[in-house]
């Protein structure tokens, strides 16, 4: 294997180490130490291993050497030492400039649709309440009678033991 090819594979493994550290940092930041975050992290590790192997497979037909592990560790350390803060800043900037305005627009559309749909629904419910108004007193009387009857039945059968079922 020529030296330029080895350098390319070394840089690819450093890149996978940086990518793995960034993904795990993102998952830990978003998960916040919850059970769901832990479960997502446990699912992410094998996927990151498969991604690193696919890069290794594309670069060097899947031949693994000891310096590949060292290169990945170098990538993780490089991320932690110098790329951690700029990438976090870029993430906050992306959130503030792209994601939040999109979420704001989606919320605005949702509220507008809910308001437009809600007006006819409120009118229909008001009309139904108005039409059912004459039936309120009879319904209340029936509920009272049912409650009284229920109390009488419970009092009457309160002292009786329940039958045991035979097996």
Automatic annotation (TrEMBL):
Give me the segments passing through the membrane.
6-27, 39-58, 89-106, 112-132
Which keywords describe this protein according to UniProt? Membrane, Transmembrane, Transmembrane helix
Pfam families per UniProt: Spore_YabQ
**Keyword flag Transmembrane:** yes
User: InterPro entries, per this entry?
Assistant: YabQ
Q: Does the keyword Cytoplasm apply?
A: no
Task: State the superkingdom.
Answer: Bacteria
Indicate what this protein is called per its UniProt record.
Answer: Spore cortex protein YabQ (Spore_YabQ)
